[in-house]
Design brief:
The protein is 46% helix and 24% strand. With 555 residues, the protein is of the alpha/beta class. The chain binds ligand C2E and magnesium ion (2 copies). One magnesium ion binds next to loops.
Length: 555
């Protein structure tokens, strides 16, 4: 009964290997009925190959040898199709140790093989894009380097990171983000040669490996990839544009092994990003110094946030008509024991790239609300507090909720809070004006920082609930001696008036600038002329002094 019902194919032969019995599973698996195979040699029938190995049965027949063998074979079905099988063969011996029969049992291994291949594929490929993963890539990379070494050729590595991918993921959702990665993978495949390897390392990082003799090939390939990303991506109902930054390293010029080359390309990619993105850069030695500096700064910044090593200064914003201080801008400061005061111009970009900005931004907001809550303007009423918000903070799903938390925690009135976003933030959030609307509904105002330096279209501004435009310092610097700067400022003021937005000029250093701005109809001003950014206690003293002056000056 066991013989008849087991799932394994069993075939019994005599000592000269002629079939004497085969079970039902044998018929099912091989397609040969028992009656048709009686008296035949199963090895010839199934093409197992044992019969072609003269020592194979000799060993099984050897009275002192093992009477058992097992291993993987390839079998042929009656239909001619072959399949992998796991087979065990036992030699059955009589009392004199002479072999009387052989029993061979085997099962169809196809399913296991398929599963094994799948596992193998999974282990070496990225499930999202189907591209090779880091493991497989590393393997191919090592081999290409070896080959390049032998043939004295070059080997090119390109490290691609998509620009602002996180924003897409955060605003349009992960499903869209995934879809974008798949389409990017497809486009990369289209521009590469068959002999090149493209892999996804994770996130939005891709690497391309190309063998070559000329370094020009690398520029050519990098440019081809940037071009391939240029066309808009249709993702469901959304059409988006995205660019990439590419770092290039070349064997043997930039490193002797895979890990050196990988690091070099990664560093070059960061350099491409900081050069303004959507470009490629070859690795150079001085880049690695800069990266080192950056990493150092990143670590220092994390420590500073944890140990309360940052502080906030406040710069007054003046109503030009009467000199009253009606608002202040919070500006983060990082006093470092070794380096002195580190400028936010240096560490904000690092904080943005590394994601630290999300913690830092909320920290500044909380600190500023705590410092300024209850402070009156010199004209009476609660002081307006402007806090800078970077795009990465703004894009977080929980941004509005976090702002609300800080307000309720500190008791700061929403109506006195203003968030400064830059024009570039506006470009990204064109679609998610919803965030601005919900802030507006809470009573929070919005101002556009560094206005004039980006390329916002009038249309974009028109649709959004923006309260104030801050004219960038670069226009104010030349205001009194350049007609161009003056007409730009006039145009901006006209734009602001037509959109019913308040206007403030940044970076006023001289009295004649302030006077001209007042005449041109600019409501407010901010700059060293009035005051530098001050620590909170100095700010209080400053406000008291302004109040006194204004009172004395009043008729
Ligand atoms: P911003 O928001 O445009 O801030 C104005 C900058 O101009 C400040 O530089 C301020 O000190 C400087 N400034 C003000 N008046 C004058 C003037 O009359 N002459 C000159 N030459 N400069 C003037 P700061 O504090 O170095 O900040 C630089 C930038 O760093 C800020 O530009 C802002 O974009 C960013 N930043 C500062 N604090 C934060 C923050 O808490 N969060 C974020 N996301 N960014 C911040
Ligand atoms: Mg600002
Ligand atoms: Mg500004």
């Amino acid at each position: 009964m066991v013989f008849g019902t087991t799932a394994e194919a069993i075939v019994i032969t005599d000592a000269s290997r002629r079939v004497v019995a085969a079970n039902a599973a044998f018929a099912r698996i091989t397609g040969h009925q028992e009656a048709d195979v009686l008296g035949q040699d199963p090895d010839q029938l199934l093409g197992t190959g044992h019969d072609r190995d003269p020592s194979f049965y000799r060993q099984l027949l050897d009275p002192v040898g093992s009477a058992y063998w097992q291993g993987e074979i390839t079998c042929r079905r009656a239909s001619g199709e072959t399949f992998p099988a796991w087979e065990s063969i036992s030699a059955v011996r009589d009392g004199d140790l002479r072999v009387t029969h052989f029993v061979a049992a085997f099962s169809d291994f196809t399913a296991i093989h398929v599963a094994e291949e799948k596992l193998n594929h999974l282990a070496h490929h990225d499930t999202l894009t189907g591209l090779p993963n880091r493991l497989l890539f590393d393997d191919r990379f090592e081999r290409s380097i070896e080959q390049a070494r032998r043939t004295q050729q070059r080997c090119i590595l390109l490290f691609l990171d998509l620009d602002s991918f996180k924003v897409v993921n955060d605003t349009l959702g992960h499903t869209t983000g995934d879809e974008l990665l798949r389409v990017v993978a497809g486009r990369l495949g289209d521009v590469l040669r068959r002999s090149d390897t493209v892999a996804r390392l994770g996130g939005d990082e891709f690497v391309v490996l190309a063998g070559s003799t000329q370094p020009e090939d690398a520029s050519h390939l990098a440019q081809k990839i940037l071009n391939a990303l240029r066309a808009p991506f249709d993702l469901g109902d959304e059409q988006i544009r995205i660019s990439g930054s590419i770092g290039v390293s070349v064997f043997p010029d930039h490193g002797n092994d895979a890990s050196q080359l990988m690091r070099a390309a990664d560093i070059a990619m960061y350099s491409a990003k900081s050069q303004g993105r959507n470009r490629y850069q070859f690795f150079t030695e001085d880049m690695s110094e800069r990266t080192h500096e950056r990493m150092h700064m990143e670590q220092g910044l994390r420590r500073a946030i944890e140990s309360d090593g940052l502080t906030v200064h406040y710069q007054p914003q003046i109503r030009l008509a009467d000199g009253q201080v009606v608002g202040i801008e919070a500006l983060v400061r990082w006093p470092d024991p070794d380096q002195g005061m580190i400028s936010p111009m240096r560490f904000i970009p690092v904080a943005e790239d590394s994601g630290i900005i999300e913690t830092l931004g909320i920290w500044v907001l909380r600190r500023a609300c705590r410092d300024i809550v209850g402070l009156p303007t010199t004209a009476g009423g609660h002081m307006r507090l402007a806090v800078n918000v970077s795009v990465r903070q703004f894009m977080r799903d929980d941004f509005v909720a976090r702002v609300l938390d800080v307000l309720s925690e500190t008791g700061f009135p929403a109506e006195a809070l203003e968030l400064e976003i830059t024009e570039s933030t506006l470009q990204v959030i064109e679609r998610s004006a919803g965030i601005l609307e919900s802030l507006k509904q809470l009573g929070i105002s919005i101002s556009i920082d560094d206005f004039g330096t980006g390329y916002s279209s009038l249309g974009v501004l028109r649709g959004l609930p923006i309260d104030r435009i801050k004219i960038d310092r670069s226009f104010i610097v030349d205001l009194t001696d350049s007609n161009d700067a003056r007409s730009m400022v006039e145009a901006m003021l006209a734009l602001g008036r037509s959109l019913r937005m308040d206007m403030i000029a940044e970076g006023i250093e001289h009295g004649d600038q302030a006077e001209l701005l007042r005449q041109l109809g600019c409501n407010e001003g901010q700059g060293f002329l009035f005051s530098r950014p001050l620590p909170v206690d100095e700010l209080r003293r400053h406000l008291a002094a302004v109040r006194r002056d204004n009172e004395c000056g009043a008729p």
